[in-house]
Amino acid sequence: MSILVNKDTKVIVQGFTGSEGTFHSTQCLDYGTQIVGGVTPGKGGQEHLGKPVFNTVKEAVKATGATVSMVFVPPRFVADAVMEAADAGIELAVIITEGAPVKDMQMAKAYAVKNGMKTIGPNCPGIITAGECKIGIMPGMIFKKGNVGLISKSGTLTYEGANQVVNEGYGISTAVGIGGDPIIGLSYKQLLPMFEADPETEAIVMIGEIGGDLEIQAAKLIKEQITKPVVAFIAGQTAPKGKRMGHAGAIISGSAGTAKEKMDALEAVGVKVVVSPAEIGKAVKEVLSK
Amino acid sequence: MNIHEYQAKEIFAKYGVPTPRGIIAHSVEEAVENAKKLGGNIWVVKAQIHAGGRGLGGGVKLAKSIEEVEKLAGEILGMTLVTHQTGPEGKLVQKVYIEEGADIQDELYLSVVLDRAKEMPIIMASTEGGMDIETVAEETPEKIIKVAVDPAIGFQGFHGRELVFGLGITDKNEQKNMIQFASKLYKLYMDNDAEMIEINPLIKTGAGEFLALDGKMGFDDSALFRHPDIEAMRDISEEDPDEREASQYGLSYIALDGEIGCMVNGAGLAMGTMDTINYMGGTPANFLDVGGTANAQTVAKGFEIILKNPNVKAIFVNIFGGIVRCDRIANGILEATKMVDVNVPVVVRLDGTNAPEAAEILRNANIENIITATDLGDGAKKAVEAAKGGK
């Protein structure tokens, strides 16, 4: 078991034939992901990486039965691509693209929700179910199979966290990079209950950062619904106010969205909060050996 | 990207959002000329910098004669204005906005921002104009009205009614004026991919009209490609030169006031590295994300920018190599040390793909001031020790 994706998940790639799409699709195929085709408007009928290319998502879905799309299209076209996927009946779009306009994502997400399509990202490393399916840009070999679920706003902190978990002798069930933009798809609130329901997952690591209040919402939900142990790290305790720390959404506005406020909220509901990401592995070991 | 008050008011004017009349001036002569053009017998001389709190800092002054305009423009132009938003170093004033005096009967607050929880814009209004909205939110939150507008339906009549009744506006004419004001502001927010618009204060005149006395606007950087007119308003002199230089090389850099320079791949890990240095008893000198494809050039540029800061006593290079292999990054670091004279200890932690090979490369290079670390905690600890002068 795992959440959202597994070895049977059929994936298409939007922006399949571009350089990013090509490079990462190759890596995903090597990992074992069932990429069944891709979409590049105007290149329909061709073959790429041994898989069929289609002009539209509808055609791709009809021909391949894909349920998930990995999106690599450039930022100015990403909303269009996501809405096309939703319109074509895709169930989950994993949006890797960085630099999508906020207004566009707001519209695309509202349309996805209306059509019952889940989204992950944008500006994220994607999702990986260890040993089964990698949809995104993370280095697959770090993610050894195991019983820890991981949710993170940051790409490299996802790798850092997973690596520590593995070094402590545990492994990862599914890891989801949710992205650090102001408007994102699936977040802690939706993913925590999925991990709670997944029999394979025994503990959950959540990595957050300054800006917004998703971690505060997560704390409320953990109190009500989550019985599995949760380890959390919030990046940006030393970040100055009013400065955007790399991610478009990582900004303390006025006095809201600080790391401390989030850490306090999570600690108050029994989450094991670590002050440094270097402590994630040890904390997982501690909660799992209780 | 942020713009100046006078630029925001140009955009307001295009959308019919009422403002007092004003003209931008780059010199005392221009200031005097503008005041004469505007006419009247009272003017406001306003420093144009990208920071709030200009009035308290002495950057906004009232002039009751042309002579006074001349005197005040002379004082304000060229001054280093320090406000609660500029930091202690302040900002140099290079432009002043000369504006006609307004008949202020009442001061309100109005802004449009993205509500991240609702995932749509909200219009925020308050009767407590002229005050810091953070303070109002803390002390009298009931005095702030928030109206969320779903872009799928746009600004409707009910949004307007919520706003005016919330603000306690009872006069029919005033209600109509305020609703129009807010509706136009929402439209210009959406049309221009604004990130925030803040008008503080928005004034009511004796005639019951509403005017934007101030105007602050920021835009979504990711959407600037479709707004060349806004991009053209960029004032480079308002931006930190090091941050700007870094961004030209695809690096994301923010200066801090500590002693340990940080070079990291990924924004989250970069913040996490700063936090870990702090946890180990040191102080980070900067945030620096070298991005996903760290190579010799970007690493060299990173060293160069970090070392411009004279407070830096050690550098911590913390890279988690994923798709980019660590051995390549190790070679990149060695090359970079040849391009830039790195004269402080450099603690290097490379983890992930091919990490052992990378460690071997760094060891064999035998460069005196490179200290290798095995993991994040170890690296931060060694960097803190190195900055304190230990080994």
What would your notes on this structure say?
Chain A has 290 residues and is an alpha/beta fold. Chain A folds into 2 domains: 10-120, Rossmann fold (3-Layer(aba) Sandwich), CATH 3.40.50.720; 138-288, Rossmann fold (3-Layer(aba) Sandwich), CATH 3.40.50. Chain A has 9 helices and 14 strands. Chain A has helices spanning 19-31, 57-64, 78-87, 102-114, 155-167, 188-197, 214-225, 259-268, 280-288; strands spanning 10-14, 34-39, 47-48, 51-54, 68-71, 92-95, 118-120, 126-129, 133-136, 145-152, 172-177, 203-209, 230-235, 272-274. The radius of gyration of chain A is 18 Å and the shape is globular. By secondary structure, chain B is α+β, with helices and mostly antiparallel strands. Chain B folds into 3 domains: 19-101, Dna Ligase, domain 1 (2-Layer Sandwich); 104-238, ATP-grasp fold, B domain (D-amino Acid Aminotransferase, Chain A, domain 1); 241-387, Rossmann fold (3-Layer(aba) Sandwich). Chain B is built from 13 helices and 19 strands. In chain B, the strands form 5 sheets. In chain B, strands 1, 8, 9, 10, 11, 12 and 13 form a 7-stranded antiparallel sheet that branches. In chain B, strands 2-7-3-4 form a 4-stranded antiparallel sheet, with helices on one face. The model of chain B has no long low-confidence stretch (mean pLDDT 92).
CATH class of the largest domain in chain B: Alpha Beta
The named CATH superfamily of the largest domain in chain A: Succinyl-CoA synthetase domains
CATH fold field value of the largest domain in chain A? Rossmann fold
Strands of the widest sheet of chain A, in order across it, are 3-4-2-1-5-6-7
| Residue-averaged pLDDT of chain B | 92
How much β-strand is present in the residues of chain B? Answer: 25-35%
> Rough shape of chain B?
elongated
Low-confidence sequence ranges of chain B: none
Biggest sheet details of chain A: 7 strands, mixed
Gyration radius over CA of chain A = 18 Å
Strand content of chain A: 15-25%
Count every beta strand of chain A, where a strand is a DSSP E run of 2 or more residues.
14
Any idea of the CATH topology of the largest domain in chain B? Answer: Rossmann fold
* Mass-distribution shape of chain A: globular
Tell me what the CATH architecture of the largest domain in chain B is. 3-Layer(aba) Sandwich
User: Given the helix and strand composition of chain A, which structural class is it?
Assistant: alpha/beta
